[in-house]
């Protein structure tokens, strides 16, 4: 039954990693390749990850430079960027796509903070769902007499400590991203 706790911990770690990945794509005051690396580009009729089509760099704090490996893909990359919800118009310069990110307004920063708080809360809900599943497994094992009362209590306490620890980890990730967003 220690597997139930280990499985729960692995699932919780995946939920936190997913949160980190999602938050990396949220725009802060400075440019980051993570803002565009999740984009899919329609390349020769197939959706292709932008990372496979171009090199992504940040030459300045508010500029993202996308250099296609195949110069003919620049137009497709530009279309994908226009369709994305970045709110930035790409500029083509000699087969290279340039994104100049404007400064975020205070209002937009507050909207982004609300959005990331919602993401964090969804991650906490995922943690609670994982805990509930593990608790159900432990309860079923106890009812089948595969688990003693003392061991059952011990495993429940272990799960509670685990979820408390993982919730704090989510709060730290959220606080770091919130600080990045609100930094002017």
Description:
This protein is α+β, with helices and mostly antiparallel strands and 184 residues long. The chain has helices spanning 2-24, 50-53, 74-83, 106-143, 149-182; strands spanning 40-43, 46-49, 54-60, 63-68, 91-93, 96-100. The strands form 2 sheets. It has a 4-stranded antiparallel β-sheet. A hairpin with a 2-residue loop joins strand 1 and strand 2. Helix 1 (2-24) runs antiparallel to helix 4, helix 1 runs parallel beside helix 5 (149-182) and helix 4 packs antiparallel against helix 5. The radius of gyration is 22 Å and the shape is elongated. The model has no long low-confidence stretch (mean pLDDT 88).
Essential attributes:
184 residues; alpha+beta; Topoisomerase I, Chain A, domain 4; Gyrase A, domain 2; four-stranded antiparallel sheet; 6 strands; 59% helix
The helicity comes to 55-70%
Which second-level CATH architecture of the largest domain applies?
Orthogonal Bundle
**Arrangement of strands in the largest sheet:** 3-4-6-5
The CATH topology of the largest domain is Topoisomerase I, Chain A, domain 4
- Domain module tally: 2
Write the H/E string, N to C.
Answer: HEEHEEHEEHH
What are the segments in which pLDDT stays under 50 over at least 5 consecutive residues? none
**Strand coverage percent:** 15-25%
Q: Class of the largest domain in CATH?
A: Mainly Alpha
The count of strands amounts to: 6
The helix-and-strand class reads alpha+beta
- What is the typical, i.e. mean, pLDDT? 88
Shape, please?
A: elongated
Counted by DSSP, the helix tally is: 5
Distance between the termini: 49 Å
What's the Cα radius of gyration?
A: 22 Å
Major beta sheet summary = 4 strands, antiparallel
CATH superfamily descriptor of the largest domain: Ribosome-recycling factor
